[in-house]
Structures are given as C-alpha cells and as structure tokens.
Design goal:
Layout lengths: L1 H7 L3 H13 L8 H15 L5 H14 L5 H37 L6 H5 L7 H21 L2 H20 L6 H17 L14 H13 L5 E2 L3 H13 L7 H15 L4 E2 L14 H19 L3 H15 L4 H21 L19
Parallel strand pairs: 1-2
C-alpha cells in the first residue's frame, strides 16, 4: 500500500521528506523490535521510489546502523528493508552491501591503513556485534534476490551474488548465527529461481554446490542435541533447492537424505530458550525441525516419484525402525508414511492394468 501511495505522488522532494521522517523515527522503537522491523520495511519501500542515489545510500547505511543485530526480528526487518529498496536500486544496493562487508575488514586494519576505521560511517562494533552484522548482511542478499528484476536475476546471481556469497558459504569456521542466515538466503535464492518464476529452461548451476554446504553445516551439529535453528533452516533450504530442475540423481538423493536423517531423527535434547520461526506452527523448535525434515522428504519424492526413490528413502530409514529410543522409531515410521503418501499421490512409474473378460459362466483358471 505504501508503494502504491508513493507512486501516485511524483514529487521527489516529498518522497525524500517522507523517507527522512521515517528514518528519524527509528530511535523511538528501540524497545519494540516488531514495530521497528516493520519500519525498516517501510523505509526500504520508500527508498525504492527515490531517484537520488546519495539519499538512498545514506538511508541504507542508517538501517544497518540503527538495527540491533542481536535481535532476529530486527535482523530480518533490516534485510527485508534492504530487499525492498533493491526492487528499484539493485545495482546500488549490491555495491553498498559489499561496502558494508568491508567494515569488518576495516575494523581489523592496523598501521598506515588504520585510517579506514576512522572513515567508517558507523560506530565501532565489537567482534560479537560484527558477527551479528554479518548475519544481517547474508540475509539481505536473500531478499535482494527476491526483489531483483527477473530480466537480470540470473546474470546478477552468476556474476555478482554467488561469487560474493561463496566466500562466506565455504568458510568452515563460520558462526552458527551466520550459517542460519546463509541457509535462509539459500532458500530465498531457490524460491527466486524456481521454474514457476523464470521462463524458459533455466538451470541453477550452483544448486548442488549449495546442497554440499547444507550437508557440511548439518554435519557440524551434534545429532542428539538441538541448540539452534540450523537444522530446521537446512531442511527448509533443502526442500526449496530439491524442487529445482533437473531432479537430483539417485546418489545425490541418498547422500542428502542420509545426512538429514542421521542428524535430525536422533534429536532428543533441546537447548532452553529456543523459539520457533514465525511461519512454523509447531510447539517446539524440535517438532518444527522434524516437520521440515518431512517436507524435505516430500519434495524429493514429488520431484522424482518412482519406486526407486521410495526404495532409497525407506532403505535410509530402515536402521531407525529397530532403535532403542522410542522417538527415533516413531519419527522413522512417520517419515515412512509421509513418503508413501506422497508417492501414492504422485507416482509416475505404475500402470493400472485391466482385468481380462471371462465368458459367461466361465471360471478363471
């Protein structure tokens, strides 16, 4: 609605004054993260209607500076605001996101080049705050991809976005909060390049590379202990990536399915204080993680609804049918039912036969 209202008013000065006033309101919402997150989105939408680049840049930096990056709600609000701005200023936003990434390197600079720190347009961040800022940065790329024009989306992904993100994806020492943001960005990228959005026969060549990162992230967790949303987000990203063309090979299905199964079904302890993600209706994050695991299995069967796929997945679950732990047996049975139900609805490799007709009074042999 805000976008439509601003489109009616062609006065650029009025648009900038509205965005400037919203920016000044940010300090009023320090204790109200939900409302502040909404304000970030409004500012981003307003910036998408403003042509003056210096004004847009200043307010993009203001959003990063004003966000409490330790709060997931504000991180997402800031990222979504950046994405909204990118609807009209994709190139500019990508440049500024790369500049924000350099704040961390500038913080570490010493000697002659230490003057860069003094030129940073924000206060000095602690190491912990910088990690949280990095999480917001990673998440921002996901929403930028979502907002990017379809005409330039694939080119920007191939030449700018994926090469930049790869440096972070491949870092095996990345903090969990950053990995969670990267997993959500992978999911958003997969949704953005789904065949339902992109015309033609586009193939997202980086799909298997991203799945490789997902497996690495999941395998860094302790199977029995749930201490973050990482596995939940990994399952959600998996479901989105699996639904891209072409379908995964049998070997890829087996490798991916085994990793998710071996690190999700054994979960039995949950760190206190974990909260479910907004769009998950489960009572606990453990339940939500198991539910998303089921969705990932469904996506695998939907994309390749054959006896071979079902056989592979059931073989993967077989060791859990006889586990001593009741929760492992129960989850494996539930997953089996879920797999078979989807196959029943989508099966492509079965033929319904027609019984032979017998003559009147004849008995079948």
């Amino acid at each position: 609605m805000l976008s439509a209202c601003m489109s009616v008013v062609v006065d650029g000065e009025w648009r900038m004054s509205l965005a400037a006033v919203m920016g000044k309101q940010l300090d009023l919402y320090k204790e109200y993260p939900e409302e502040k997150a909404f304000l970030f989105r409004c500012i981003g939408t307003a910036l998408s209607k403003i042509a003056l680049k210096s004004f847009v840049v200043d307010h993009l930096l203001l959003m990063f500076k004003s966000s409490q990056h330790n709060l997931p709600t504000e991180r997402q609000g800031c990222a979504r605001g950046v994405g909204a701005c990118a609807a009209s200023h994709t190139e500019l936003v990508l440049v500024e996101l790369e500049n924000v990434s350099k704040w961390e390197h500038a913080k570490k600079s010493t000697g002659f080049f230490g003057f860069i720190k003094d030129a940073m347009p924000i206060r000095q961040y602690t190491d912990t705050e910088m990690v949280l800022l990095r999480a917001t940065l990673m998440l921002s790329y996901g929403y930028v991809v979502q907002s990017c024009s379809l005409d330039t989306l694939t080119q920007r992904l191939q030449h700018t976005i994926i090469p930049f993100l790869r440096h972070y994806f491949a870092n095996n020492k990345q903090e969990t909060v950053v990995r969670e943001a990267m997993l959500e960005t992978m999911r958003l990228i997969a949704l953005a390049v789904h065949p339902s959005r992109l015309p033609g026969d586009y193939r997202f060549e980086t799909r298997n590379e991203l799945i490789g990162y997902i497996k690495d992230y999941v395998q860094s967790e302790t199977p029995e202990m749930l201490s973050s949303s990482l596995r939940l987000l990994a399952a959600k990203a998996t479901a989105a990536l699996v639904r891209l063309e072409p379908t995964l090979s049998d070997d890829d299905i087996w490798d991916l399915g085994c990793v998710l199964t071996q690190y999700i079904l054994p979960m039995c302890r949950e760190k206190s204080g974990l909260k479910t993600i907004d769009d998950d209706e489960s009572a606990t994050i453990m339940d939500a993680t198991v539910a998303q695991y089921g969705n990932a299995l469904e996506a695998i069967v939907e994309m390749k609804p054959t006896v071979g796929t079902v056989t592979q997945l059931l073989k993967m679950l077989l060791p859990f049918y006889g586990k001593l732990a009741e929760h492992e047996r129960s989850r494996s049975v539930d997953a089996t039912v879920q797999i078979l139900r989807v196959y029943l609805d989508r099966a492509e490799d079965i033929t319904i036969g027609v019984s032979g007709k017998f003559a009147a009074g004849a008995k079948p042999k």
